[in-house]
Design brief:
Layout lengths: L10 E3 L1 H5 L3 H5 L16 H9 L2 H14 L3 H15 L5 H18 L2 E5 H13 L2 E5 L5 H12 L6 E5 L8 H6 L3 E4 L7 H16 L5 E2 L18 H11 L7 E9 L5 H8 L9 H6 L10 E6 L3 E2 H5 L21 H20 L5 H11 L4 E2 H17 L12 H11 L4 E4 L2 E4 L11 H19 L3 H16 L5 H14 L11 H14 L3 E3 L4 E3 L4 H28 L8 H14 L7 H13 L3 E6 L2 E6 L3 H9 L10
Helix pairs in contact: 3-10, 4-5, 4-10, 5-10, 6-8, 10-11, 12-19, 16-17, 16-19, 19-24, 20-21, 20-22, 20-23, 23-24, 23-25, 23-26
């Protein structure tokens, strides 16, 4: 049994029993999950008939028929084909096959898979009372396989899982996933009214009937950076609508936090962020990936959070009587207050995921190594990691740190597990950079390889950023404000908060609450003292404040480089030309600001610039360019940024 430094629930390693008993007996055991209000699930074919005959879908079919001039029978047939392409065909035999094969694979890949059993008990109760929606974090393809494996292990109802159409290109495997509960959706619906109607009615029918827990990823796709992505609200809107319309009494939303000590796709993510095309999902690619079975991926934690009642959340925020004015089967665009409520709920759920992420010692080591790009003495790294551990716990980290083991042993164990990213030589620890023997590399190739190393390490550092980002924003604001007056410090904080609201999970409209939270945390660790109108830094907290400022440095520097390249270097800046990539490599490499090369940071920075009306998007031939509107944001960022090497805007 594992206990974490900051106790929430106790964890149990579900692989321990698997290592000591028959996998075949486990896969073929009696499986009798408790269901929603004791209902017997209908067959997949019956579910399709319910969807196709629903008043809601029939209404849209008649609309589409009138708009396109086709007969209703032809549109009905098209809807049936769309549903056939989309729908799952859950079969217990396939589940048993996966239970057997995944048991074999997980025992090789992971030292342990730890689950909070209290969360499982809460989920078991919730499934029997109201429709349940499972909302896991998404860092790996392994997530949805592990979720179903865990629910099967604990004899819980297996979820139906929203999956991208990419998997359909995998012969045999795609159909196996369909038979294990996956239903497939297109990445983009465009203006396809019929597809949207079929999809939404399919999901709502499963939810209304308590067919099975519905599972999807709020972030929409895997995070390549280790940070949580801005939530997508389309599916969340769909699963909440039956409650808004009074078709169900309540809906339980269950955030699930999945934490990896080492990510299986870590070698791919950094290259994808640098523009290397993502490998296409295929059965042959899956077979080639068998080599990962020779690697050690450490431990994994899955934390099932408290079920969140939509009914409780909506009380006092949503007036459901507005839905009585229109027949239920007629599609309605969500009102502004409803959309705002769904958006706020999405951010709240992602924050709950973040707060329950189990952090390993390696994330602290990664953070320190990135702040010291020339390497660190092992003794210094160990000492600073221990200091950072104490600070993280003060801030409320959910940290898995081995009890009764000296810090030096913990750090050494982390370095061994991540030997592909770091090396220890002569008592000094530094990042590993791929340098093919006998090959002469150009400056840009060396910058690219260095960027791969930095971004790979940053994906682990980013796992803990949610803990430090608000205090870090305040630390930089304190450093740059013209006075100690609270209102001036808040103005600086608010500016940074707005700039980085695409980069981190900062709930819209919550700048004041985040400022108060940051003040509380810095006061708690003794870094500041709050007076009536002033915020004063304490001498004893200078080390903490300096560290927190350095947490934001890569982002301040990265945004400044992106601003310069996109606005000043090119009259028509387009982030997808070879020339532009060359310029990025040159500038980022010379400044050692490798995180500016990340497509994720570039996307977030440009989104912030457009939102703050610093640039505007202009269509030019078949590409899009960004033209500057004013230089105010640049001058502000220059003030906040602390480059190790001078960087001057023209």
């Amino acid at each position: 049994q594992l206990n974490l430094c900051d106790k929430r629930d106790d964890f149990e390693d579900i692989l321990e029993e698997r290592r000591n008993s028959s996998d075949l007996r486990y896969a073929l055991r009696c499986y009798t999950p408790a269901l929603y209000k004791g209902l017997v699930p209908c067959k997949a074919s019956m579910l399709k008939n319910i969807v196709l005959q629903s008043d809601s879908l029939q209404y849209v079919i008649s609309q589409v028929s009138a708009e396109c001039g086709e007969s209703q029978e032809a549109v009905q047939e098209e809807a049936s084909l769309l549903l056939e392409e989309m729908a799952h065909r859950l079969q217990l035999g396939t589940i048993r096959f996966f239970a057997f094969t995944l048991s074999k694979a997980f025992k090789v890949l992971f030292r342990s898979v730890c689950v909070n059993e209290e969360g499982i008990q809460r989920l078991q109760q919730a499934i029997q009372e109201h429709p349940v929606v499972l909302l896991p974090s998404h860092r790996s393809y392994m997530d949805f396989l592990m979720m179903s494996y865990i629910l099967y292990t604990y004899d819980l109802a297996l979820p139906v899982i929203a999956a991208g159409m990419d998997f359909m290109s995998m012969k045999f495997v795609g159909e196996m996933l369909r038979m294990s509960g996956a239903f497939f959706i297109r990445r983009s619906f465009g203006g396809d009214k019929l597809y949207w109607a079929v999809f939404s009615e399919y999901v709502k029918t499963m939810l209304r009937n308590g067919y099975a827990p519905i599972e999807f990823f709020l972030e929409g796709t895997r995070s390549r950076t280790g940070k949580s992505l801005t939530p997508k609200t389309g599916l969340l809107n769909i699963v909440m609508e039956p409650f808004f319309k009074g078709e169900v009494f309540d809906v339980n939303l269950v955030p699930v936090s999945i934490s990896y000590e080492r990510i299986l796709e870590e070698a791919l993510y950094a290259r994808e962020l640098l523009g290397v095309p993502k490998p296409k999902e295929s059965t042959s690619g899956l077979l080639k990936a068998r080599r990962i079975l020779s690697e050690d991926y450490g431990s994994m934690h899955v934390y099932f959070g408290q079920p969140v009642s939509v009914r409780s959340l909506a009380q006092g925020h949503i007036n459901r009587s507005q839905y009585n004015l229109v027949p239920r089967h007629i599609p309605q665009k969500p009102a502004a207050d409803t959309q705002s409520f769904v958006n706020d709920t999405a951010y709240r759920l992602v924050r709950l995921q973040e707060e329950s992420m189990v952090l390993k010692p390696w994330v602290l080591v990664a953070m320190l190594l990135l702040q010291n790009p020339d390497g660190m003495d092992l003794s210094t790294l160990t000492e600073q990691a221990d200091w950072l551990r104490r600070l993280a716990l003060t801030f409320g980290a959910f940290l898995d740190w081995p009890d009764r083991e000296p810090c030096s042993k913990v750090i050494s164990s982390s370095l061994v597990l991540h030997k592909n990213l770091v090396c220890v030589s002569g008592g000094r620890v530094r990042l590993v950079v791929d340098e093919p023997s006998g090959a002469e590399l150009s400056t840009n190739e060396m910058a690219f390889n260095q960027a791969v190393s930095v971004l790979s390490c940053a994906s682990y550092r980013n796992q803990i950023l949610h803990l430090f980002v608000r205090p870090a924003l305040l630390a930089v604001a304190l450093q740059t404000a013209n006075s100690n007056r609270r209102d001036e410090v808040y103005n600086c904080f608010n500016f940074l908060w707005n700039v980085f609201s695409n980069e981190f999970i900062l709930c819209p409209g919550a700048a004041v609450q985040d400022f108060e939270e940051a003040c509380f945390l810095l006061g708690k660790c003794g870094a500041i003292q709050e007076l009536q109108q002033d915020i004063v830094t304490c001498q004893s907290g200078q080390t903490t404040l300096a560290f927190l400022c350095s947490v934001l440095d890569p982002f301040l520097q990265g945004y400044q480089v992106i601003l310069y390249i996109n606005i000043y270097h090119h009259k028509r800046a387009c982030a997808h030309t070879h020339k532009h990539c060359f310029v990025f490599l040159t500038y980022a490499g010379s400044l050692k600001c490798y995180e500016a090369l990340s497509s994720d940071m570039q996307k977030n920075a440009l989104a912030a610039l457009m939102r703050l009306k610093t640039v505007r998007k202009v269509k030019y031939d078949v590409t899009f360019a960004f033209s500057k509107t004013h230089r105010g944001l640049v001058s502000h960022l220059v003030m906040y940024c602390r480059f190790s090497r001078p960087f001057i805007f023209c």
